[in-house]
Every structure is written in C-alpha cells, then in structure tokens.
C-alpha cells in the first residue's frame, strides 16, 4: 500500500492548518508592535478613536469608531501586541490592540477593551490593559481577502460589528449577526 502526504501551502507561505500570517494591503506580513492604519477599503473608512457623547474632536477619546474618509484625514495608527514572542500576527492568535499614540486623559490607556455594561450593546472603548480578558481580541479571515476582528479567546470568538452613532461615524460593538472586513496599511 502506498500512502501520500498532501501539504497545501497558502499564499502567505504557511502550511494550511497552521495559523496563517495576517497580510497587510501590500501582501507583507503584519508585524507585532509595529504601527498600522486599519481601513475598510470598500467604503474608504478608517478606524479611529473618538470622544464620548460629543462631536468635539478635542474631547478625550473614549471609544473606537469607524470614520468615513470625508471626516478623518489621517487616522491614528494601531499596534498589535502579542503575548507570545512571535514577531508576526497570525490569524486567530489572541492579541491586544492599542493606538500607537495616546492622549493624556484620565482613564484612557489606548488599549481596546469591550465595556462591561448592563446595556444590550457592548462597545469597544479605550480603557483596557494588556493583561485583562476584556482586552483580548483576534484577527479572523473575512471575505474578499480582508480580515475581521473578533473579541475573546480564539476558541470562542465573538465578531466585532458596527453601530452607527452619527452620520459617517460608527462605533465598534460586539455583534453575533454582523462583522466587517478591514485591511491593514503600514503607518
């Protein structure tokens, strides 16, 4: 009897079944601890941060939002922080996300966190930390070569979706019914 071992190699060079490397918009591996812009190409919209309950861009940022390109000229970059020593970000790897530059506001760490709220909508806010469960995210494969964010451990992720709060501004929220695709561009 003759047996064959079939190994599929993905475009990123990883063996299928292993955790694939997340690729940026130029086809290069996304690096841990390096700054990236996060954007939704089909809508020319960018991930950014925004004040709480106000349209004032000078208020302390409290939430993570998706801005239309008409509103934001240059979004703040983010950094993916891994708990492992790996230097590249892989699909389904647990990580923390933080804005590369932070404001010096009380209660703003720059780390993304899902707010523990009694409200039915759980939004992503900026008061997380590297060591807490409510600040654990993963990057998952989405459609058309893009990626999506999920909250929680890699074995039980919950998609991150959008909830419109103002024209051209949607906050990031936990969503069992929707997600959105993003791409990463080096800052």
N- to C-terminal separation? 55 Å
- Which radius of gyration do the C-alpha atoms yield? 17 Å
Average pLDDT value? 81
From the spread of the alpha carbons, the general shape counts as globular
Helical/strand content category: mainly beta
Percentage of helical residues?
A: under 10%
Beta-strand segment tally: 12
Low-pLDDT residue spans: 1-17
The helix/strand order is EEEEEEEEEEEE
Number of helices: 0
Report the major sheet.
10 strands, antiparallel
Strand portion: 25-35%
What order do the helices and strands come in, and which of them pair?
Blueprint: E1 35-40, E2 45-51, E3 61-68, E4 78-82, E5 95-99, E6 113-114, E7 124-125, E8 137-141, E9 147-151, E10 158-166, E11 169-174, E12 183-186
Antiparallel strand pairs: 1-2, 1-4, 1-12, 2-3, 3-11, 4-5, 6-7, 8-9, 9-10, 10-11
Supply database-style keywords.
mainly beta, single chain, 0% helix, disordered N terminus, 187 residues
In short:
With 187 residues, the chain is mostly beta strands.
Q: How is this structure best described in words?
A:
With 187 residues, the chain is mainly beta. Helix content is 0%, strand content 34%. It has no helices and 12 strands. It has strands spanning 35-40, 45-51, 61-68, 78-82, 95-99, 113-114, 124-125, 137-141, 147-151, 158-166, 169-174, 183-186. The strands form 2 sheets. Strands 1, 2, 3, 4, 5, 8, 9, 10, 11 and 12 form a 10-stranded antiparallel sheet that branches. A hairpin with a 4-residue loop joins strand 1 and strand 2.
């Amino acid at each position: 009897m003759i047996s064959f071992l079939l190994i599929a190699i993905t475009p990123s060079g990883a063996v299928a079944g292993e955790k694939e490397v997340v690729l940026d918009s130029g086809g290069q591996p996304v690096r841990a601890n390096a700054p990236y812009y996060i954007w939704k190409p089909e809508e020319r919209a960018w991930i950014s941060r925004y004040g709480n309950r106000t349209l004032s861009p000078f208020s302390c940022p409290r939430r993570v939002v998706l801005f239309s390109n008409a509103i934001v000229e240059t979004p703040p970059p983010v950094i993916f922080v891994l708990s492992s020593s790996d230097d590249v970000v892989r699909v389904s790897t647990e990580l923390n996300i933080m804005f590369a530059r932070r404001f010096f506001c009380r209660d703003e760490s720059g780390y993304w966190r899902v707010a523990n709220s009694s409200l039915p909508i759980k939004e992503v806010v900026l008061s997380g930390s590297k060591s807490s469960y409510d600040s654990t995210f993963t990057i998952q494969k989405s459609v058309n070569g893009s990626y999506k964010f999920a909250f929680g451990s890699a074995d039980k992720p919950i998609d991150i979706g959008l909830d419109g709060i103002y024209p051209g501004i949607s906050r990031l929220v936990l969503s069992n019914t929707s997600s959105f695709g993003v791409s990463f561009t080096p800052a």
